[in-house]
Design a protein that fits this description.
Blueprint lengths: L1 H7 L2 H35 L6 H11 L1 H4 L16 H10 L21 H14 L18 H14 L1 H4 L6 E2 L5 E2 L7 H10 L14 H17 L12 H27 L1
Antiparallel strand pairs: 1-2
């Protein structure tokens, strides 16, 4: 018993236990990291059908001035390494990129590249590092969304998005010349890509924040309110009682002034 007790207290035993603990921890970390890297690589290559070679040429001719020859970024534009194909498809597919001029925010404008060129650029940027992929048709198919899921999409939108985009998704002003755009007329694919990439001032909503099914529900809700239009008449910016009250006040005061001028002119 005394010999066993001395062996337990030996410094070598403590050192051996420490080494074993480090080896086990390192092995578990390596397995976990490998799984995550593989998942990211699979996601990056998904639905990217463009040519990396053609995309590299397009990038050098149209994007490298701001983003650098290797997309490493510069004073005029951020690094694109790891942003993924979805970010390129959104920015280029909505005409926000290339920018016409530097400013607080890149507004949407007529698209400069066709679908194949956009896919080529997306494939090139995706080859630089793992990032969100362009969603497939099943991911953004909202045809099977139930009424309950539609209502849940509205709740998710109001909790996470309405403070910037307005409860009616009509958009709104932010600080320093920035703004949240209206979501009317935006395709399902671009809405999804915006959620997973966080363009401009928008935060990123990955699958840990809002799951894929919940993203689909949000998209279905946005398309639902877009199809409804404005059943109450003129939307007036969909700003609620503020714009409506201002309109009524301005119109009412104008009518009173006009009526007063009419009465005084008759007595004169």
């Amino acid at each position: 018993m005394k010999a066993l007790s001395q062996r337990r207290r030996s410094p070598l035993a403590v050192f051996a236990l420490l080494v074993i603990g480090l080896l086990v921890t390192g092995g578990l970390y390596a397995v976990a990291s490998g799984s995550v890297s593989k998942a990211q690589a699979d996601e990056t290559t998904q639905t990217v059908n463009g040519s990396v070679e053609n995309g590299s040429k397009l990038f050098a001719a149209n994007c490298a001035t701001c983003h650098g020859l290797a997309a490493e970024g510069s004073d005029s534009g951020p690094s694109l390494v790891g942003v993924g194909a979805a970010a390129v498809d959104f920015q280029v597919g909505t005409g926000r990129m290339p920018m016409q001029m530097q400013g607080p925010q890149a507004p949407s404008k007529p698209v400069q590249f066709d679908e194949q060129q956009t896919a080529d650029l997306a494939a090139y940027v995706a080859s630089l590092g793992a990032g969100p992929a362009i969603p497939d048709e099943e991911t953004i198919d909202i045809s099977g969304v139930s009424d309950e899921e539609l209502a849940n999409g509205g709740t998710i939108f109001r909790v996470n998005c309405a403070m910037c985009h307005n409860a009616a998704a009509a958009g709104g002003a932010l600080t320093r010349g920035k703004f949240a755009p209206s979501l009317a007329g935006v395709s399902e694919q671009h809405i999804y890509e915006a959620m997973v990439t966080g363009p401009q001032n928008m935060p990123v909503f990955n699958d840990s924040n809002i799951t894929r099914e919940q993203k689909k529900q949000v998209i279905a809700y946005l398309k639902h309110i877009e199809a409804q239009g404005s059943p109450g008449g003129q939307a007036l910016g969909s700003l609620g009682p503020v714009s409506e009250g201002l309109f009524i006040w301005t119109a009412g005061i104008g009518l009173m002034v006009a009526f007063t001028i009419w009465i005084t002119s008759r007595h004169a």
